[in-house]
Protein: Zona pellucida binding protein
Amino acid sequence: MCTQAGSQASTPPAHHPSGSGASVGPSFRPAVCQLPAAGGRAPGNDLLRRGSAVGGVWMEALAPGRAPRGRRRAGASGSVLSPLSLAAVLLCALLRAPPAVGHLARLPRSIHLTQDSLKIVGSTHFPVSVYVMLHQKSPHVLCVTQRLRNTELVDPSFQWHGPKGKLVSENTTAQVTSTGSLIFQSFEETMSGVYTCFLEYKPTVEESIKNLQLKYIVYAYREPRFYYQFTARYHAAPCNSIYNISFEKKLLQILSKLVLDLSCEISLIKSECHRVKMQRAGLQNELFFTFSVASIDTEKGSKPCTDHSCEASKRLSKAKNLIERFFIQQVEVLGKRAEPLPEIYYIEGTLQMVWVNRCFPGYGINVLKHPKCPECCVVCSPGSFNPRDGTHCLQCNNSLVYGAKTCMI
Structure:
């Protein structure tokens, strides 16, 4: 499963309530004012009481029976939306939004390495690195050099040796063809290692037999389990207020509900409250809210995804679009409601997103060591290991196997 360090929302996603609109705990009440001509920042509390206009959409945390800050606008409804009702408003707004024009599908360049047409030749000067996606068919590893590839060879004889001994053509996992090519049908992590080909041939009928030895280092690799990390800022209640915590939980519930059908999950990375001095609005309290959206591993790493729609990149891209539209709708939809300015609200324009790669335990990304597969999570070589979901293999001289998850002694 793709997870990220940090606390995760422990409460279930919000559902539409049946019956009355009664709720337990703090209520979140949407309120708006007119947007400024050119975006604005969060005002100070004195501006809140006067209801000055700023950019953004707002959610106010109120204790049961507590009156909202500022006076209600004449004719405004006296009802207070419950957290569940607010979630319904936001989700309905998303459903009314037009479909995304397209989505980002960032795939590693290594996706081209497993094409059947790819053929790899050896070198007499150094071992050649070969990368095979886990559980996939390998490219053809030829038992010739580039010079000999297009040369006639008289009475060639091929013999392959792998990490566990001699390979024969009848092997079900590693096939040796009649022309000496090595092909892996379904590559496993434990099959990584050094493979040596011994070639005997005559350049011409009259010449004597020549011998050639070619070495290949074959690595299993997996595509990175990437995730998106988002940061957003909210105008907040005083930093020691319990209403900030209640708001945080409700926000995580709404975001989790958005991506649930895409087999993705939201994880809280951190949520910090700080006092920020603004140029014209004085001191104000702000929540710096950071969370991740990651794909849930439906295959559990056992087999590759065969259905195009279940690819993690596709599902995560859709989840990213939903989250971005969610914050846009906080400005566009709730911004039209004629209500007083609340205490907690999203500060328009503060949403930021970054792409983060990570690898399975026992795998790592190393551009210097694997320049032919720069975005691959390549199995850790002997002398290195990766104990958890991370990016790089760590050095360990006691590790003697490929794919080590611990620094063995």
Q: What stands out?
A: DSSP finds five helices and 20 strands in the chain. The radius of gyration is 30 Å. Helices lie at 45-50, 83-96, 146-149, 242-259, 312-332. Residues 1-85, 88-117, 299-308 have pLDDT under 50 and may be disordered.
